[in-house]
Amino acid sequence: MFTAFMRAIGQLTDPPILRVLGGSVMLSAACFAAAWFGIGWLLTSIHLWDVPGLDTAIAVLGGFATLILSWLLFPLLVSTLLGLFLDRVANAIEARHYPRLPAAKGLPWWQGLWCSARFLGLVIVMNVLLLLLLFVPPLYPVGYVVVNGMLIGREYFDLIALRRVDPTTAKTLRRRCGIDVFVMGAIGAGLAMVPLVNLIAPVVLTAAMVHRFEAARTQAGGG
User: Fold this and answer.
1) pTM score > 0.70 for this model?
2) How many structural domains compose the chain?
3) What pLDDT score does 67 carry?
4) What is the DSSP string of 29-52?
């Protein structure tokens, strides 16, 4: 797993990866802006209270709350749109490290759409529930990393795997390296919270997951 991340970082300067990074940075900035304005509008435009002064207090705190919530949702929004650059990153990694592999059959658009929709639904539900942990501040970071590590790790591995194997095989391989997939997802969620690093985190995690998937296939005798 450590080697997978080191190989991924070492290939960031390759021209194909640099082109994807440019798109990833723009996508990341667009997602953050969308989250910022969307949450800001929600907090400042919807008035649910008739208590004098309460709406004003909410408006005053709105900027801070918008920043925090946008920052928390940012990596999840980017991960949902992973399919926009996944194939190009995976192809670049495979061309350099696994040149003997046949061309990937790719992920059908409808399957990618279904995976993204399912992932987005899970993300929304689980992270809304996680907000309850804000009442117990020490527990929230732990819950955030655990839950989103599971979600992100599973999503990235499945999308990489489904380019080359059927859903049943992908599920079997993911279960065999479940701990690594979870830890990699948690690392990805953590990196996505670091300023500037979060702009390249999706590409790094995608590249690292290609290496982990190929290692899993080799271990299972399907390499």
Assistant:
1) yes
2) 1
3) 67
4) HHHHHHHHHHHHHHHHH-----ST
